[in-house]
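Hey,
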Amino acid sequence: MPPSDLAATLLLVLAPLVAGWLWWRPAPYGRHSAPGWGPSLNGRLAWVLMESPSVLLFGAAIATGPLPPTSLWCAGLWLLHYGHRTFIFPFRLRTPRPMPVLIVLSGAAFNTVNAWANASALTAAPPADLWLAVGSLGFLAAMALNVDSDTRLLRLRDRGPGYHLPQGGGFQWVSSPNYLGELLEWASYALATRSLPALAFFVFTAANLAPRARDHHRWYKRTFRDLPAGRKAFLPGLW
C-alpha cells in the first residue's frame, strides 16, 4: 500500500473518534469559545497558520515533478479552495476571536498529513471521464455555496452589534450552509479524483463539520425565536 493510502487509512480510523469527541464537546473557537484551553492566538493569524500547509506543502509536493493534465486540473481545484481559505477568508473577518494554540496546532497537523497524502495521490492521473466532469462542476458549485454563505454571515455585522439571524441563500434550508458547501466540495473532489486520500478527507470533513453544524443549529434555536421551523442543521429537509 502506498504511504499516501496508509495516511488516508489512519484518517479514516480517526474520523469516528473525532466525531465522537466533537459530538460531546464543541471545538472551542468562534461562538463556541470556552476557557480552559490554554494560550490563544490572534484569530486571523491562527487561520493563516492552520490552513497554510494545505497551500504551501501541497504546492511544493505537486511541483516536484510533472503531473498529467487531469491531475493538474484537480490540483487547481484544491488550491482554489485553500488559496481562498488561507489568504482571503481570514482577512475578511472584521473582529476574529482568538483561537486556542492547541486547535491551531491540531488543525495544522491534520492539514499537513492531508495535503501531503492528497498531493501524492495525484501522481496517478484521474481519468478524463464523466466522473471528473461531474466532480469538477460539483466542486465549483459547492465552493460558490460556501463563499456565498460566509459572505452572508460577514455582512451581518453591517446590521449592528450583537448576533443576527442569517437569511437567504443556503440559509433558507440549513443553519450552516457554509459547512454544507465545504462538505460537498470534498465529496465532489473525491468523485473527481477517486483516490483513497480524497475519500478519507471527505469522511474526516463530515466527522468535523456535522457536530459543529448541530451545535450551531442548537445555538440558533436558543438565541432566535423567529428561526424558521423548516430550517435544518446541516442536510436540507433531513437533519
